[in-house]
Fold this protein.
Amino acid sequence: MRKFLLALSASLCIALPGLAQESAPPTPPDSTVTTPEAVPPAAPVLTGLAKVIAENAAAIAKPSRQTIGPVIAAIDAAGEGAPAFLAAWADKKLGARKSDGAIFFVEKQGADYALSDPVTGGAAGTAPKSEITEIKPNSGVRGLIASALVQFQLSDPDPVQRRAALDSLSREGGPEHLEPLAASIAGESDAAIKAQKERLLGLLTIRFGATPEARIAAIEGFGADLALDFRAALNPILATTRKAFAAAPEGNVAKTLRPGHGGFSAEEAYALLVSEGLAPKRLTRADLRAALEAHVENGAVGGIPVAELDQPAKRDAAYTALETAGLVPAAATDDEVASAVAAHQYADIYTEPDSAVTTAAAAALQSVSFKVDAMQGMDLGLDALSLASIYFLAAIGLAITFGVMGVINMAHGEFITMGAYTGYVVQLWIHDYTVSILVALPLAFLVTFTAGVAMERLVIRHLYKRPLETLLATFGISIALQQLFKNIFGTQARPLTAPDWLDGAWVMNDIVGISYIRIAIFVMALVFLALYLWVMKRTRLGLEVRAVTQNPSMAASMGINPDRINMLAFGLGSGIAGIAGVAIGLFAKVTSELGSDYIVQSFMTVVVGGVGNIWGTLAGATLVGFLQKGIEALNPSNTLAAQTYMILFIIIFIQFRPRGIIALKGRAAGD
């Protein structure tokens, strides 16, 4: 009964602590009461991302590209919170607390850091800077983090983020990205991004597909695609390694090799054996001589008399004997080299082990190569057509002055330069580039027309029928104008900026493309061709110019002033040169020597085409432009040599057709 009452009393004290305190008898001063120790609260059980971070805190704080991969993979697989954590890690927004190594989001806040939970992002207080170590992963680790973030960014609501993820995958995509990339395609709402994802999936499948069948299907799905990324995906599959074999070649053989055939020499074969440890290094003559001299005993080396060592075979036998006795290091003599080379087989082995994949890749690349060659030819043709239009535009004014007046104007290039500088000055005052070009074209014509008329009135008119003196005089004017340009504008190149709508290029594919500026020059050349034909065929000035060209004496008797026609023709040719200068200055450097870069080609264009005939000038520009680009394509490393060959060809051409492609009748023909 007493035990029951004591137990009841104890239970009441636990249930009613207030009552127990009031009713408990005072404790005697000399009595001892034993109080049970307080039990600390149990640590929370970590799961998911929090557990991964806690278990790998040290590796996260000091990451290394060689060892951090499994940690990033574990974070990536943790699910919720992983994208934000990885992004903060890559952006160097993580910090480790020194006291316990805990990882937090950190943000500088005065002299302290504001801490946030790395999983939830909730506030976790502050810490002084001395207690936090910023985590700064290197570029290699950030690249791995970026790859891990891709699967989250592929489905990001922001299309900019999705495109960024695809760009990252195109650079560093791997087999682990195939599944998330494929899963993101079905829900993609942007048609352009969806097409980009599908293409990238095909490229990654070519390289990392799970089965050969999937890789082959991906290769065949691209057909004869010309894009660089497709060819870049095929090339690693067809990469080869040259190997030597003691028996038949093993692996996916691309090509068997025979020493001494097909550019594969015996020396290369033995070097391959040495590199693979299948043969000792070759014995050099110096090493052979030194070894033999060091082991002469009783007038013999390795049992072979010294008197017989003048024979190569005896020297090799002596060294072999020393080698067998362990007196010299192992090295191959000439006969041993020949034997070793003959005893092995050689082959180029694909790094890709599956032969079906390499066969499909080789067939696709061959199909692409044919199309690439055709596209390169087309691109070369566009370049040549562009160059021909530039030469035509530069030479059309020279064709007028040379054809009508018979004057060799060596200063024609400086009128081109004058037009370019006119465009530059206009842009100093008019900052809208479209308006400035529209103003510069007629103004350049006016300036150079005036300069041409002044030159004709002051110099050229006194030198008619004296071609050598005309050439020397205009050459002197050319030098004087170049120096004048240097004095006014300096020696540095001046910018002549094209409007925004002329920026960029018209691109058909990764091979064929042409800049919009060159297209504009081509169109301008056609416009001036049409304008020239209209002036010459439909106006009184054109009628008088044609009359003077064919028979100046008869034209004078009909009331036409040849002197006036010569002046206007010279001014017209100079004015067109000024317009050409504005066009050329849009893509070339505007310097005092700009015109001199085109004067030779301009004269060749006029002479080859036929003096004084616009159609001849057009034919000459086409011939010179295509010829120059064709020679440059055959000799791309030396453009100066290409120009030399072109000039030699023109000289030979003129020997057989001195009047050009389209000969002109009349005064120019007689001259």
Notes: The radius of gyration is 43 Å.
